[in-house]
Amino acid sequence: MIFIFSSKDDFTTNKVCDWLRYYEHQYIRLNKETQNVRIEEFDLGNDLIILNIEGYKINIKDITAVWFRRGGLSDVLSEWNDPIHIPKNLGIIQNILSHKIKNEINQLALFIQFKIENGKNIGSYFNKGLNKLKMLDLAKNEGFKIPDTFIVSKLDELESILSKNEVVTKAISDGLYEFTDDTAYYTYTEEINNSTLDTFSDSFTPSLLQSKIQKKIEIRSFYLVDRFYSMAIFSQKNKKTSTDYRKYDSEIPNRMIPYELPSNIEDMLIRIYEKVGLNTGSADIIVDEENNFYFLEINPVGQFTMTSTPCNYYLEKEVALELIRIKNETTKGKDPKIKKE
Amino acid sequence: MIDTKRYLLIYTDVISVLGAKNMLLMDTSRKNIYSLPCSYFSLIEDFRKKTIEVIKETYSESETTAFINFIIENDLGELTDSLHEFPKISSNFYSTEKINNSIIEIHKDSDINSLKKIIQQLDDLDCRFIEIRSYSIMNLALIFELFENFKCNSLRGITLLLQYEDCSDFTKKLKSLMFKFPIITKIYIHSSIENKIVKDEELFTNIGTRIIIFTTQKIHSNKCCGIINEKSLVIRDIYGTSENINFNSCLYKKISIDVNGEIKNCPSMSKSYGNIKSNSLKEITANTSFKKYWNINKDQINICQDCEFRYICTDCRAYTERTHINKQGLDISKPLKCGYDPYTGKWEEWSKNPLKAKAIKAYENN
Question: How many beta carbons lie within 10 A of that of residue B277, not counting itself?
Answer without folding.
Answer: 10
